[in-house]
Amino acid sequence: xxxxxxxxxxxxxxxxxxxxxxxxxxxxxxxxxxxxxxxxxxxxxxxxxxxxxxxxxxxxxxxxxxxxxxxxxxxxxxxxxxxxxxxxxxxxxxxxxxxxxxxxxxxxxxxxxxxxxxxxxxxxxxxxxxxxxxxxxxxxxxxxxxxxxxxxxxxxxxxxxxxxxxxxxxxxxxxxxxxxxxxxxxxxxxxxxxxxxxxxxxxxxxxxxxxxxx
Length: 214
Description:
The protein has 214 residues and is mainly alpha-helical. The relative contact order is 0.15. The chain has helices spanning 3-8, 10-21, 24-38, 47-58, 65-90, 104-117, 121-124, 131-141, 146-171, 175-178, 181-204.
């Protein structure tokens, strides 16, 4: 199963998981969320759309939405905590290391975002693909106090999981959304990427203004 196909048809594949694995689907979803947030080498897993689709399927009775929310919240918090510890162990030398699976540009952009927004980055990053995976890693590299990191981790994890799962639960089965789910996935990805795009444009534009006429 190709990653792009999984992302664009996550609702269909998730239904297959429910049909083929039954209650084991909880473990599968737990693992996906844990890996996306916990391993810095896996930044492209479909977290937002997966949560929305899971909520929509839970609304059909195939899964318990409360149990689903609790398990995925735990996965998100545990994943970020693991990522933090990996970053703390590797330390600042990661910026000078030639790592095949970690793009230096992603590290630098996330570090810049982290320096600007501080601990709140851990919350904001939950809603930003790629930065979501790198933010706890950078927090660990920066030796952010763990108790402070954990507070932001819990708040951000709860906001991310509950918002997408329950949006999917209440709206995912509306005919207009259900019949155009692929477009909804594109919209979710686009909205998730919008803050990062706006930030890049904001940084780019001041340095590339046309010269004023005399």
